[in-house]
Design a protein that fits this description.
By secondary structure, the chain is mainly alpha-helical. The protein has 16 helices and six strands. It folds into three domains: about 70 residues, no CATH class; about 90 residues, Tyrosine recombinase, N-terminal domain (DNA polymerase, domain 1); about 170 residues, hpI Integrase, Chain A (Orthogonal Bundle).
Length: about 375
């Protein structure tokens, strides 16, 4: 049983408690208050009796520090933890993922305000809900849900390190986007033909690939000749976003384009060297996407972007255009369905954002895919 004792010649009380091995132990409390000394004695005994984890030890030491000094034990601030977590993540995840980690960590710290300088154990569910709601109102529901996922990962690491007792982000649910109207739409065939008339050689190929395969901008821009087999008329790829392995038949107009490229090329050479170099240089597809946007502006399908700076940067909602390169994917999907191609074949051909769902459609026969691509119109005429 914990108790206190004071030597006649000392002004400080001594804490007496039973140690882990059953022996009685004494520790000076450096306090003249018997009440404070008694509280310290009980904390010493609590520590001696328990099998200490990092979290328990940190809590008990914090209690002892507060009893002795009257102040909270300085811990790891939320800002310090997130900055260190972002820095350490740079060697663990890919560049694009790391940039998202970095962006969302900064947004979260900004949403906390002065609280970001306090101990990370003070972060609670209300803080995360406020952050999620703020991102959704300024940007989009999808961005808010991605932000929540990233903060959940970070706080999960804090929990593993013993800095917090539980992850408060696990009790925050994702937001629903059921009531969000889709902004983007498929291209019409006249619009695609209009683009092909003004596009340069590489962009003609990019548009043909997008229309006839329904694949994403980065997958097409970075494809190499090794992936293109003109004899078997197939394109083999592993999608960057969902890591799906796909073998797609090449439509006749796309084959004609590929065979028209007269320059010598090796298997590692990119089909679209200029656009691929842009992606490789920046590690992002933004410049290529902007170049396609310029084509849309040139054909007057979209208005020019305003060059006037708002000073809001990435903190405010981007205005999504109804047309982008990704709309070629919607066009492919829409035309295949309109031609009566079965849903299972459309899904196997185009793919899905969810790898789990896409796995259901990986066993469609190649003949079905060939019939599907033949159902698409010839936009090269």
């Amino acid at each position: 049983m914990a108790s206190i004792w004071k030597h006649p010649d000392s002004k400080y009380w001594t804490a007496c408690f039973t140690g882990p091995d059953g022996r009685r132990m004494k520790r000076s409390t450096k306090t003249t208050s018997p009440r404070a000394a008694e509280r310290l004695a009980f904390k010493y005994e609590e520590a001696a009796r328990k099998k200490l984890t990092k979290k328990t030890a940190r809590r008990i030491i914090g209690d002892i520090y507060e009893i002795a000094s009257g102040e909270k034990l300085p811990g790891e601030s939320t800002r310090k933890f997130f900055e260190l977590w972002v820095a350490q993540s740079k060697t663990r995840v890919k560049g694009g993922t790391w940039r998202k980690y970095n962006d969302e960590a900064k947004r979260f710290l900004a949403s906390l305000g002065e609280k970001a300088e306090r101990d990370i154990s003070t972060v609670n569910r209300a803080d995360i809900l406020a952050f999620q709601t703020g991102v959704a109102s300024r940007l989009s529901v999808g961005t808010a849900n991605l932000a929540l996922k990233i903060i959940r990962i970070a706080l999960g690491e804090a929990n593993k390190q013993g800095l917090i007792d539980f992850n408060p982000a696990t009790n925050v649910g994702v937001l629903s986007d059921k009531n969000v109207e889709p902004v983007r739409r498929p291209f019409t065939l006249p619009e695609i033909k209009k683009l092909l008339k003004i596009a340069d050689k590489e962009w003609i190929g990019m548009i043909l690939f997008g229309f006839y395969t329904g694949q994403r901008l980065q997958d097409i821009a970075t494809t190499t000749w090794k992936a293109v087999d003109l004899k078997t008329q197939r394109w083999t790829l592993t999608t960057i976003k969902t890591h799906q392995n796909k073998i797609l038949p090449l439509a006749v107009p796309l084959l004609k384009y590929l065979r028209s490229l007269k320059s010598a090329h090796g298997p590692k050479t990119h089909v679209f060297p200029i656009l691929a170099a842009s992606v490789k240089k920046t590690g992002r597809v933004a410049q290529v996407s902007n170049a396609f946007h310029d084509l849309l502006v040139e054909t007057k399908m979209l208005p020019p972007r305003s060059k006037q700076k708002t000073g809001k940067g990435r903190s405010e909602r981007r205005k999504l255009n109804e047309l982008s390169f990704h709309c070629l994917r919607h066009t492919n999907n829409s035309l295949l369905k309109k031609a009566g191609v079965p849903e299972s074949v459309v899904m196997a051909f185009v793919g899905h954002d969810s790898p789990e769902i896409s796995k259901q459609y990986t066993h469609v026969e190649e003949e079905s895919l060939v019939r599907a691509v033949k159902a698409l119109p010839d936009i090269s005429k």
